[in-house]
Amino acid sequence: MKKMTSCIIMALLLFATNIFANEIYIEQAGDSSTITITQDGVNNAIGDSTVLGFIGGGSNTVAIEQIGDNNTLAMVVNGASTNTTVTTHGSGNLQSITCGTSSTATCSGSTIKQIITGDDNTVTTTLGAGGNHISEITVLGDTNTITHTSTNTGATTAYITATGNTNTIGVTQSGTLAKSVTVNSTGNSNTITINQSN
What we know:
Helix content: 10-25%
Strand content: 35-45%
Number of domains: 1
Shape: flat
Order of helices and strands: HEEEEEEEEEEEEEEE
Radius of gyration: 19 Å
Mean pLDDT: 81
Oligomer: single chain
Strand order of the largest sheet: 3-6-8-10-12-14-15
Number of helices: 1
Largest sheet: 7 strands, parallel
């Protein structure tokens, strides 16, 4: 009887762990897709540092919403004219979106927006091959660290807004010509570094 009880308890613990994990690993290839993901609460994760979520092909529309708790997002968005919006409503945050860095990918004309309303933020967007990509990052509070890296070829912009707490903002774009940055930071421990190149 004790053995049976132990087995039931272990099964329930495993079941509970799966309920709260809320993890998504996605690999999608093809053009003109619309992808909507909502994660509401507890451990949220989309991809991780070893297995990135992958959206491939051009002209895709990706909308991701993470609501509370330990959020993580690690993904590659790949292909021209793809629009990605990640909205996160608080807790552990820590995001990273890389665009156009696989062997056949381009990122031309793509837009990546990351909107976070609070908690332990760390946002990283590393665009990549192809020009004219747009990155918009808005963080309103807590332990921010924001970075946008480009490797610009052609018209590129980056709007970064962070409103409060332990900011450190980055931005780095590179050649060739036409760039634009708007950073609008308001309070607390700001450090802002911008480096645009030719």
